Amino acid sequence: MRDRADSAPGSISRAKQFIITFAAFFVLGAAFKVMTLVEGLTEVRPVNAIPPVAGLAFGPVGALACGIGNVAADLVSGFGWPSVLGLIGNAAAAWLPYKLWHLFRNEPPNLRKISNILIYAAISLVNAFTTAWLLSFGLQAFFGTWIETIYTYVLYNNLGFSVMLGMPILIIITSDSVRLGLEPVPRGPLERFKKTRRIAAAAYTAIMAAICACILVFHMSPAGQPVLWALSGGAAIGLAALVV
Amino acid sequence: MTRTENNILLFSITLCWSASYIFIKSLPPELSVFAYLTLTTGIATVILVAVFAKRLRRMTRGTVKTALVLSAFLTANLLLEKKGIERLPSSNASFLAALAVIAVPLLLLLFKRKPSRNNAVGAFVIVAGLGLTNRFSISAFMSSGTVFMLLSCMCTAAYTIAADRFTKREDPLLIGILQMGFTALSSFALWFFEDSRTFLSVDYTKELLSSIFILAFFSKAYAYIVLMFSQKYTDPVSVTIIASTEPVVTLLLAVLIPAAFGGSETFSIFSLCGAMVIVAGAVIAGSNFLGARNLPKEGHTIAR
Q1: Do B5 and A176 lie within an 8 Å CB cutoff?
Q2: pLDDT tens digit sequence for B127-141
Q3: Helix ranges, B232-268 (H)
Q4: How far is A172 from chain B (nearest CA, A)?
Q5: Residue B299 contacts residue A112 (beta carbons within 8 Å)
Q6: Which terminus of chain B, N or C, has fewer Cβ atoms within 10 Å?
Q7: Which of A34, A113, A176 is nearest residue B304 as measured by Cβ atoms?
């Protein structure tokens, strides 16, 4: 494996990428543990600004660092099995933007054009849908607990902080003064099927929006609504098509 | 860096400063202003030195001088503001502090830099909006506090103009780090004069440490570095105009943030109207329909 992520000026080793992301995630995550929203499960989390930026900048290394950083921050307030869901949710919150950006843009992540800002905002929305769904439905599937506010808080935390704080951070790291070497375009056998994957992304977003509407507008719970599980099955297939 | 990118950066600073009131409210009332500043700027300096350690090697005598000047403005501003707030109702003090939006273009006239018509009109509309939001008492202005607050406002304006000049010729990151360090030292000195026990006089609870850390990270380390960084790419009037939207952001946060964390969902019709006038002022000031001055188009690089 190459040690340097990119040959561009400002590129840093993968070990450094991991340490920077992990440290930022751990410190911010632990500091905000006092602002609890749902005891033992979630709090006000500006740290949610980090995953999309870390994913866009460092790709898989950023995703891994976010997942593990979240587990480390959870250790401060008390580790529980739901923390495993946090690991998956936060790693996905970094990995998905990386894949989506390169699916829709043929340039390194940057916010220099209005269209890029809109793409970033749309990616943040899909990302927030995904994390909220993974965590709340995961709690229901594996722990038999459904808390509607978990979905709501995770959604708002991810969307709000990704846009309000994530955007400025991305602007700084892609500016001429910093010029951080970004992770190159993902490569793999499925990357060729861009058109199909773009359709999958649109379908996935529609399913996620439907799940969101079911929960926020109609206050449906997956416990008594097979339709939500059916939608979730479709979402899982769509997510797999996007992230594999 | 494009104008849009720069505006996003400046707006994020306004957001950080607006949100900081939630954490400031949770600080114990017995914690002095100097203790608060020493702790927040001290931690911010440590964070910045740790993150940008390599960059410090590029430090020159010029950078140290500029950082010292900026830090002196900041400290003077702090002292004058403290005196002003002690002698005035908070709404009057906050209105006078926001007059920087007028003070910056006025001071710039000394350097023969005329603001555009839109800037000038927008600034006055913003002041009207601030007046509506704060609903100050005119009779309360008849106090020495007004003089202190006006001097503090001039310090803010001088700081913005000096930062604008310095960041265009020196490394903004280095200026930001050094300025933070000098401010930490000067506030520590003031804290020492106030209470010689300094660090030993504070009761360090988990909540206090958490709030101090969050403030150090967002309202000091992040905000000042980004401010220095974006001042390199913009003009001082734009900086103050975006900063003047703070009451609008505060109003939005008060609605969005749960009351348990310091948010309050009640706000008057005056503050709502004031916020709308401020936004209108910011739009007027940020556009160019009254004058012939050509601004760079969206998406174009404004500086390197």
Answers
A1: no
A2: 888 887 766 667 777
A3: 236-243, 246-256
A4: 8
A5: yes
A6: C
A7: A176
Q: How far is CA B88 from CA B75, B95, B100, in A?
A: 20, 11, 18
Q: What's residue B299's pLDDT?
A: 44
From the list B2, B12, B299, the residue facing A168 with the nearest CB is B12
The answer to whether A172 contacts B229, with C-beta atoms less than 8 Å apart, is yes
Per-position pLDDT tens, chain B of length 304:
788 888 899 989 888 888 777 777 778 888 888 898 899 999 999 989 988 888 888 889 989 999 999 999 988 887 888 788 778 777 777 778 878 888 888 888 888 888 888 888 888 888 888 887 766 667 777 788 889 989 988 998 999 999 988 988 888 889 999 999 999 999 999 999 988 898 998 888 877 887 888 889 888 898 988 888 888 888 888 888 888 887 788 777 766 665 545 555 556 777 778 888 888 888 888 777 776 554 444 444 443 3
Tell me how close the Cα of A208 comes to any Cα of chain B, in angstroms.
24
> Which residues in chain A have their CB less than 8 angstroms from residue B229's CB?
172, 175, 177
Q: What gap in Å lies between CA B226 and CA B233, rounded to an integer?
A: 11
- A27-51: b or e for each residue (b if 16 or more CB lie within 10 Å)? bbbbbbbbbebeeebbbbbbbbbbb
CB atoms < 10 A from the CB of B143, how many?
Answer: 15
Q: Which residues of A touch B217 (CB under 8 A)?
A: 28, 31
Whether B300 is covered by a domain: the verdict is no
Q: Which residues pair with A4 in a beta bridge?
A: A13
- Could you give the angle at which helices B223-231 and B144-169 cross, rounded to 10 degrees? 60
Residue B250 lies in a domain: yes
Token code pair at residue B47? 């964070």
The total number of structural domains in chain B stands at 1
B272, B282, B171, B184: CA torsion to nearest 10: -30
Structural domain containing residue B168: 3-286
Of A34, A37, A164, the CB nearest to B12: A164
Q: In sequence order, what are the residues at sequence separation of 6 or more whose Cβ sits closer than 8 angstroms to the Cβ of residue A4?
A: A11, A12, A13, A14, A181
| Among candidates A33, A44, A175 on the partner chain, residue whose Cβ is nearest the Cβ of B261 | A44
Kindly determine whether residue B5 and residue A46, on different chains, have CB atoms separated by under 8 Å. no
pLDDT above 70: residue A199:
yes
User: Encoding tokens for residue B115?
Assistant: 């603001």
What are the DSSP calls for B32-43, one per residue? -HHHHHHHHHHH
Residue A144 identity (one-letter amino acid): G
Residue of A20, A33, A34, A157 to mutate, testing the B interface (most B Cβ within 10 Å of its Cβ): A34
| Radius of gyration for the alpha carbons in chain A, expressed in angstroms and rounded | 17
